[in-house]
Amino acid sequence: MNLPRSNQTENQIWRKEEVFFENDAYYESLLAGIDSAKHTIYFETYIFSKSFIGDLFAKKLCEASNRGVHVRILVDGFGSPSFTSSYEAQLKRHKVEVRLYRSLPWDLHTHTHESLNPIRRFFNRIYRMNHGTHRKYCLIDSKHLWVGSLNICDEHSEALMKEQAWGDVGVYVEGPQVSFAKKAFLKSFESKHLLKEIEEYQSNHLILLNQTRNLKRKHRAGQMSHVRKAKTRIWIETPYFVPIARFLLLLMKKHRDGLDVRIVVPFHNDVWVTKWISYSYLFRLAKSGIKVYEYQRRFLHRKVFIIDDWICIGSSNLNHRSFLHDLELDVVLTCPKVKEQVVKQTLDDMANSMPLNQDIWSAFPWWKRLLSRFLSIFSYWS
Fold first, then answer.
1. CA-based angle 311:220:75, to the nearest 5?
2. What is the CATH number of domain 205-381?
3. Full-model pTM
4. 14-184 belongs to which homologous superfamily?
5. Which range, 25-34, 81-90, 218-227, has the best average confidence (pLDDT)?
6. Checking CA distances to 232, which of 7, 42, 89, 91 falls within 20 to 30 Å?
């Protein structure tokens, strides 16, 4: 969607903006972008699994490299344990540059960016175990940016998985601020010292990064600030609800102040431990009167933050991993019509959910309540 002219500066709105709630439509848009790439493709993802979707993207990236496009791909080794054996050699044969952001400590392969000393390599991997890249984005020709909650795997495809496909959201944007996605990619891919340039993005707030320790602090502070300044509503969709204590208490305070606070989480979840940890937080919110919804139809994997008229979409969950550990990238929407689409979809998700309340918590067997409280000990790693 091309945005109308306004008195906002070019750095405060996107030139073009489109949101996708149909996962296959997002994949088709991204694949079309790869097919039309002329100069560069920077591709970063948490999961790149051996799958039909994985085969399709690997093929398209190889074809782009064959016609002279400079293709680079950064994959999280923990999220993509099959990537090395399934795709790395194929991609490298076609001159695609490949990096693993963190490798499994027991992986016997020595990857391009790693030390040749096996002892140093092992301890470097141990050090990075709790700090991965959870980002899911592709930047083409330094102009066209796709961001969202979709990995490269079959689980997201409605055509392949039918009713079992994950519920996700992606966004396509164009504008000057996509340059910060490029700098963030190069910082991770090449370990370039671009910290000053990356931190400059804070003045505009259309791309949200947590690339460095300082940016992690600013990222947390920014989220807290938006919630603290909220006047009417705070709606959050997240598959993993394990917030830091300050954020939880702030949500309860805003509800007491009369704001419309709603949380949407999935009933079906791919990480059962996180689901049970989240119950200890969700029922505390429900007890305070906050509306908590559990989406029933399928695994809802969307990450959406709606605070008054401010709407953010990307890879960040509302959990300790996104707040403290992993790399994330989110986009702030600027087009009113696109925002309306997001609000409408969120309301539809609530309509297809069951409310969680204190009666449901009380009806749980005692051992389930105890399990949830016990597992919350591990919130820091969730």
1. 80
2. 3.30.870.10
3. 0.89
4. Endonuclease Chain A (3.30.870.10)
5. 25-34
6. 7
